[in-house]
Amino acid sequence: MIAMKTRLCLSLVGVVLNACATPPSPPRPAASAPRPDPLLIAEGREWRLVELMGQEIKADAGGRVPTLSFKLEGQSLRVSGYNGCNGFFGQAEQGAPLRLRFDKLASTLRACPDMSLEQQFMQTLERTDSYQADAKQLQLHRARMAPLARFEPAAP
């Protein structure tokens, strides 16, 4: 009789504990990557550099200036362009609104008579942490200060 009461008591304790237990929470969906700003990637838009560190950029003897293009590949935002001497490519990461970082940048290895524009342009991309864009202009910033670089859409 005592054994039966003990089993009954233990069973009741088990039922009460199960009733009080919080149900497991459903699995949370994986955080999705922020969607790229349509202004950056609109129709394969190519951005043409017009100002770098407050200095106006003039076309070289061949009529070229540095450019920047963004392209969505799967979940990755890819960047490519011309840096004043070589072609370059890499990744761009868009975080919170208006946040932008360039990562894993690489370029071809062509030697040019003057590499200063290329070096300054690539350093600017590496320093960038935010941007502002509209249909007529893209500005790259560091710590929301004066623009490091200013671009306009390249003529189609």
Structural class: alpha+beta
Order of helices and strands: HHEEEEEEHEEE
Query: What do the pLDDT scores average to?
Result: 82
Q: What spatial form do the alpha-carbon principal axes imply? A: globular
Summarize the amount of helix as a percent range.
10-25%
Strand % is 25-35%
Count of DSSP-assigned helices: 3
The largest β sheet comes out as:
9 strands, antiparallel
Structure report:
The chain is an alpha+beta fold and 156 residues long. The protein has a domain at 38-108 and 116-151: Lipocalin (Beta Barrel), CATH 2.40.128. The chain has helices spanning 2-20, 38-41, 116-127, and strands spanning 46-52, 55-56, 67-73, 76-82, 87-94, 100-107, 130-134, 137-141, 149-153. Strands 1, 2, 3, 4, 5, 6, 7, 8 and 9 form a 9-stranded antiparallel sheet that branches. It starts with a helix and ends with a strand.
